[in-house]
Structures are given as C-alpha cells and as structure tokens.
C-alpha cells in the first residue's frame, strides 16, 4: 500500500509541477512582455483594379480599346519614417504596376481589321503616406484610413500585329485615399502567431481610390479608378 501511495503521489507531482512552474513564470513575466508586438518598419500592399484612361477627351483609346479595362496589377512597399504608436505613422513608399489593353486594328477605311493592336503600361510611383490606425488600436473599430500623395512615371508602348508603333513616358501627380479593414480583429490568435513567427504585425484588406494626373506635355493616360487588395505591416 505504501509503495502504491508513493507512486500515486509521484504521478500527481509530475503532472502538477510543470504547470505550476509555468504559472509562476507567467506571473513573474513583465506585463509589456505579455503584450509584446514586434517593431513596425514596413508595409507592403498587393492590389488589383480596373483602369481605362480618359485620354483628355481624345477618342484614340476608345477607338481601339473601348471594351478593355485593364486590369491594373500593382505592388507597393512603404517605409515607416515617423511613428506615433497606435495612432498614426508617416512614411514614404514606392510602387510598380502592369496593365495591358488589346483591340482590333482600324484600317484606312475606318473598319476594324483582324489584326490585333495592343497597349502596355508600367506605372512607377513614389508617394508620401499618412496612415491613421487609432480607430483600430485605441477604439477597437477595425478600420484604418490612409492618404497618399506623390508622383508617377507611366511607361507606355503600343504595337500592331506584333510590330512596335510608339512608346514614351507620361509623368504627373498621383493621389490616393484608402480605407482598410484590419483582419487582426477576426483572428487575434492567428495574428499573434504571425507576429511571433514571421514578424507580421498586422494584415488588412483595403479599398483605394486613386487619381493619376499627367502633365500637359505627356500623353493623357490618367484615370480616376479604384483598386482592392491585401496589405501587411511588418
């Protein structure tokens, strides 16, 4: 009986001691360690949306590509320059994108032929970024508001039947406003795991309105359009 009691006591202690040690360690851990969030230095955004230049009233684009709206695929990387924790940050970013339009070549008689005409565009931009995340971090309202202002260089080229026709650059002002949905609210445990394992502080879905205004000396291929996408803070 004594040996049985000793074995039972040993089994209980073997189960209880690790849990007790963990609880004691958790009690002794500083509060800031329990709520640790890795530093935020960058944001990256992947986006897609329609794009169809208005050409400043000219009918060139509509004549060839009236039924084609892109789409625009783009990537942006922002660097955090100044941060007010859980309120806002000010940063600078750069983006690159791609879009392609296709239509039928118009013959001299004004009729569309069987030959394909295409126009390819590669937008490159530099922007200043002001992102407000106080709603999400301070008030538990899962929205992030962002404003952007910068400059864009749009490389464009056209070809007909595989033959290069023309190419050039359109440069001008780029403006954007973004509303993001913070995904941390829906899976907080997953968000914590991503931060601990990958250094990804936050993830968000977003809707963004953007406006490209080329200079008067450039081909007028600007547009007021929208994009949707997925972003990460890390």
What does the model show?
This protein is α+β, with helices and mostly antiparallel strands. Strand 5 and strand 6 form a beta hairpin. It starts with a helix and ends with a strand. The N terminus is likely disordered.
> How do the strands of the widest beta sheet line up side by side?
1-2-3-4-5-6-7-8
Q: Which value, in Å, is the CA radius of gyration?
A: 27 Å
Helix-strand pattern: HHEHEEEHEEHEE
Shape: elongated
How many domains comprise the coordinates? 2
CA(first)-CA(last) distance = 60 Å
Overall SS class: alpha+beta
Largest sheet: 8 strands, antiparallel, barrel
Contiguous uncertain segments of 5+ residues: 1-34
Query: How many individual helices?
Result: 5
Helix percentage: 10-25%
User: What is the CATH architecture annotation of the largest domain?
Assistant: Beta Barrel
CATH topology descriptor of the largest domain:
Porin
List the helices and strands and how they pair.
Elements: H1 2-28, H2 31-34, E1 42-49, H3 60-65, E2 72-84, E3 88-106, E4 112-132, H4 134-138, E5 143-160, E6 163-182, H5 188-198, E7 202-214, E8 224-233
Antiparallel strand pairs: 1-2, 1-8, 2-3, 3-4, 4-5, 5-6, 6-7, 7-8
List keywords for this structure.
single chain; 234 residues; alpha+beta; Porin; 2 domains; eight-stranded antiparallel β-barrel; 8 strands; 23% helix; 52% strand; elongated; disordered N terminus
